[in-house]
Amino acid sequence: MRRLTRFIATLLLILMPAGALAAPTCQTRDGDVIKCGVSGAMPVGWTLPPEEYAAHHPDAENTDPNQLLKAIGLVALMLTFILALPDFDGRNDRDWIKQDKDDRRR
Q1: Which of 24, 22, 21 is nearest to 37 (CA)?
Q2: What are φ and ψ of residue 15, in 5° steps?
Q3: Do the Cβ atoms of 33 and 27 come closer than 8 Å?
Q4: How big, in percent rounded to 5, are the helix, strand and coil portions of the chain?
Q5: Cα(101)–Cα(106) distance, rounded to whole angstroms?
Q6: 74: helix, coil or strand?
Q7: pLDDT by residue (tens digit) across 50-61?
Q8: For residue 35, which phi and psi values (nearest 5 degrees)?
Q9: Sign of the CA dihedral 53, 55, 57, 59?
Q10: Angle 44-48-52 (CA atoms, 0-180°, nearest 5)?
């Protein structure tokens, strides 16, 4: 019974790690993220209302569909290049290119 209890306790400790805690972040009067305790930082938990944030950051809401399409195309192009690479795992002799001194015995 003790072995089972120890096993379950160990299993719980391994499977349920504690979450990492991070320091809180604060915002400036403009809604930008800043380290708490420095000059210009608002109190912890304070957030700028959405209307004022939109007034301070006019381009945050406007996303150009062309930029999104370009980004998707770039990712697709990179994946295409990766797919075009030849299969290589290094296990077969034909995967390796012979060099000048490979025929010489050691």
Answers
A1: 24
A2: -85, -20
A3: yes
A4: 40, 5, 55
A5: 10
A6: helix
A7: 888 888 777 766
A8: -70, 135
A9: positive
A10: 165
Q: Which two three-digit tokens encode residue 105?
A: 């015995």
Of the candidates 33, 27, 61, the one whose C-alpha atom is nearest the C-alpha of residue 47 is 27
First-to-final CA distance of the chain: 60
Q: What is the pTM of this model?
A: 0.39
Cβ pair 25, 40 in contact under 8 A = no
| Sequence-ordered list of residues with C-beta below 8 angstroms from that of 34, at least 6 positions apart, any chain | 25, 26, 27, 28, 40, 41
pLDDT digits (tens, 9 = 90+) for 35-89: 888 898 989 888 888 888 888 777 766 677 898 899 999 999 999 999 998 877 7
